[in-house]
From TrEMBL, chains A, B:
<dbReference type="GO" id="GO:0004413">
    <property type="term" value="F:homoserine kinase activity"/>
</dbReference>
<comment type="similarity">
    <text>Belongs to the pseudomonas-type ThrB family.</text>
</comment>
<feature type="domain" description="Aminoglycoside phosphotransferase">
    <location>
        <begin position="27"/>
        <end position="257"/>
    </location>
</feature>
<keyword id="KW-0791">Threonine biosynthesis</keyword>
<keyword id="KW-0418">Kinase</keyword>
<comment type="pathway">
    <text>Amino-acid biosynthesis; L-threonine biosynthesis; L-threonine from L-aspartate: step 4/5.</text>
</comment>
<protein>
    <recommendedName>
        <fullName>Homoserine kinase</fullName>
        <ecNumber>2.7.1.39</ecNumber>
    </recommendedName>
</protein>
<dbReference type="InterPro" id="IPR011009">
    <property type="entry name" value="Kinase-like_dom_sf"/>
</dbReference>
<dbReference type="Pfam" id="PF01636">
    <property type="entry name" value="APH"/>
</dbReference>
<keyword id="KW-0808">Transferase</keyword>
<dbReference type="InterPro" id="IPR050249">
    <property type="entry name" value="Pseudomonas-type_ThrB"/>
</dbReference>
<dbReference type="GO" id="GO:0005524">
    <property type="term" value="F:ATP binding"/>
</dbReference>
<keyword id="KW-0028">Amino-acid biosynthesis</keyword>
<dbReference type="InterPro" id="IPR005280">
    <property type="entry name" value="Homoserine_kinase_II"/>
</dbReference>
<dbReference type="GO" id="GO:0009088">
    <property type="term" value="P:threonine biosynthetic process"/>
</dbReference>
<keyword id="KW-0547">Nucleotide-binding</keyword>
<dbReference type="InterPro" id="IPR002575">
    <property type="entry name" value="Aminoglycoside_PTrfase"/>
</dbReference>
Length: 321, 321
C-alpha cells in the first residue's frame, strides 16, 4: 500500500523510451500491492502499470510471475500482460530494482462481494486453472503446509497477547493439518491470493484478475479454499452458503471436481484460513510501532478457521453431493 | 504520500453518480500530497482526482482553496478545477470526510529543475499572481513570520540533537526576521508551496500548477522566495544563479517588481528557508518511530538559509539593478 522506490520523471522518461507507448503524459505512485512499488502511467497510447519489485519478492521468481501473466493472457484470461521493450525483454531494471511495465486493466474491486461476484469468480478461476495447464515453469507454494510451522514459531511466544489461548490452539490445528494434509489432488498453477482486491469488475462482469505474485503450483482446490475464505464470509464473519454454492457451482461448470477434491475441501479451507491467520499474526506482532500501514486483524481468520473446524463435509459449502 | 481514508468501489460509484462523468472504469489510491487522501479516477468522460480532506486541513479553509482553483482556472491559469455535482456543490462529503472531485492535469514534475523550467515557472507564477487579484476570499498565511516561533518552541529543546548549535542559531535568525520582516509590500494570493512536485511540464512547456492547500494572502515576493529555495539550488545545495535569474526575469516580464520587493528578497528568502527548515525539523523530531514516510532532511534548508544570510542584495539572485 505504498511506494517504496521513488522514480523521477527523468528516470521514467528514459525507461519508457525503450517501449512503444508514445509520449509519457503523467505518472502517479499508486497505493496498490503490499510488496512492490507501483506507478500508474498515462501515455499517448494508453495506460500502463509500472512495477518495481522490492526486496520481499525473490528476483528468481520474477520470470515465473511475468511468464505466467503472459501465458494466461495468451489463452484469453483477462490479466495484466508484461510489455516487451525494444530489446525483447519484459523484465528490466529501474532505480536499481527489477522492474516491468504491464498493461493496465479497467475495472473496480468490490468491497462487499455479492452472489453474482462469486459466480463470475468461480468460472474465471476454473478457466485460469485450465489455461495454466501447459505453462512450463514451476514454483512451489512457500506458504503451504510446510511453510506454516516456521511462521507459527516466530509468533507463538506472543500469540496469546493477541488472544488468550491462541498459541496452543494454533499448535493443535497445525498438528492436525500436518498429519492430514492431502498429498495427491489435481494440481497446477494457482493464484493463491485471490481476494476481492485482486479481481476487477465492470458492473456484473468480471474484467480481470491481477497480482500474481503469490502464484505457484499447488492443488486447484486450495485456490477455491482461499476464495471460500476471502469471498463467502459476511462482515460479521458469518458464512454465506449461497455465495459458496455460486462460487463452487460456476467453477465446476468449467472444470469438474474430482470426488477427492470435494472431500478435501473442508481441510483445505482450514489450511487456507490458518495460512492467512499466520501471516497476519506475524505482521501484527512484527510491524514497527507507529507504522502507517495498519496490519490486518488476524482474528478474523481465527473465526473463519473455527467455522471450518465444525464442517463435516463439502455439503456445508452448498454442494449437493 | 499515502491514502488515509479507504474508499470502496461501492461508495465511490454512489458518489460519482451525482456528476456527469459517465461510467466509472477504475480508481487507484495515489501517493500524492502529504495532507490528504487522493484517488485517480478513470471514467468514460476522462480522468479525475478525488480528494478527501484529512484532519490536518481546516474544513473552514476549503471554500478558499476550491474557490481559488476555480477562480484561477477561469482566468486561464492551468490548474485543477473542482467539478460541481448535480446539486451545484463542489465541496461534498464522502466516508465522513469533506471531499471534492477535481479535474486531472497531464504533465510530469521534474526531479532536477533545469533553467528552462525556472523560466517557465517565473512567467506562470506572475500570471497566477495577477489572475488572483480579484479573488474575493482571504486566508492569512499561518506559516509566515508570526507562525514560526511556536514551531521553534516545539523543537528548540531537541534541535541540537539534529545539529549542535542549531537551537541557538535558529533563535537568533528568528529574532532577526521578526525585527526586520517587511510590513508593506505588494501582496495578494500566493501559492506558498510551489515546489517542483507541484508543477507539471510536458517537455519544455509548463502544463499545470497543483496543490493549492497552502495558498493564502501574503507578499507576492514571498512566493518568489519560496521558488528561489525550491528550484535554484543544486543537489549539493550550491546556489545556481542562472536558474534564479531565469526565474526572476521571466516573472518580471509578466509583473514588474517594485524596488521595495527587490530590496526585501534576501530577507524573504531567509524567511522562506526558515519556514521549511522549521516544519521539516518539527516533522523530523515528532514523526513516529518506524513510520513509513521518511521525513525530509531539515538541514538542507539550514544550508540554504546560511547562503541567504551572506547575500547583500538582490544582485546575488542574478538581477541587474
Amino acid at each position: 500500500m505504498a511506494v517504496y522506490t521513488e522514480v523521477s520523471a527523468e528516470d521514467l522518461a528514459c525507461f519508457v523510451a525503450d517501449y512503444d507507448l508514445g509520449e509519457l503524459l503523467s505518472f502517479k505512485g499508486i497505493a496498490e500491492g503490499v510488496e512492490n512499488s507501483n506507478y500508474l502511467l498515462q501515455a499517448e497510447k494508453g495506460s500502463y502499470i509500472l512495477t518495481l519489485y522490492e526486496k520481499r519478492v525473490a528476483a528468481e521468481d520474477l520470470p515465473f510471475f511475468l511468464g505466467l501473466m503472459e501465458h494466461l493472457a495468451g489463452r484469453g484470461i483477462s490479466c495484466p500482460v508484461p510489455l516487451h521493450a525494444g530489446d525483447g525483454k519484459a523484465l528490466r531494471q529501474l532505480c536499481g530494482r527489477p522492474a516491468a511495465l504491464i498493461s493496465f486493466l479497467e475495472g473496480l474491486s468490490p468491497r462487499r462481494a455479492q452472489t453474482f461476484h462469486c459466480s463470475a469468480l468461480g468460472a474465471a478461476l476454473a478457466r485460469m486453472h485450465l489455461a495454466g495447464a501447459d505453462f512450463p515453469l514451476q514454483r512451489r507454494n512457500a506458504l503451504s503446509v510446510d511453510g506454516w510451522r516456521p511462521l507459527l514459531e516466530a509468533c507463538a511466544g506472543r500469540a496469546d497477547t493477541v488472544s488468550p489461548g491462541l498459541a496452543e490452539a494454533l499448535e493443535s490445528e497445525l498438528k492436525h493439518l500436518e498429519a492430514n494434509w492431502p498429498d495427491k489432488l489435481p494440481a497446477g498453477v494457482i493464484h493463491a491470493d485471490l481476494f476481492p482486491d485482486n479481481v476487477f469488475f465492470r458492473r456484473e462482469q468480471l474484467t480481470g484478475i491481477i497480482d500474481f505474485y503469490f502464484a505457484c503450483n499447488d492443488f486447484f482446490a486450495y485456490d477455491l479454499a482461499v476464495c471460500l475464505n476471502a469471498w463467502c464470509f459476511e462482515q460479521d464473519n458469518a458464512f454465506n452458503v449461497t455465495k459458496a454454492r455460486m462460487l463452487l457451482q460456476s467453477y465446476s461448470r468449467e472444470r469438474a471436481f474430482s470426488e477427492a477434491e470435494l472431500e478435501a475441501l473442508p481441510l483445505l479451507a482450514r489450511g487456507s484460513a490458518l495460512r492467512f491467520l499466520l501471516t497476519r499474526l506475524y505482521d501484527w506482532l512484527h510491524h514497527p510501532e507507529g507504522a502507517f500501514v495498519q496490519p490486518k486483524d488476524p482474528l478474523e481468520y481465527w473465526k473463519k478457521l473455527k467455522f471450518h473446524q465444525e464442517v463435516r463435509g463439502p455439503g456445508a459449502y452448498g454442494l449437493d453431493l
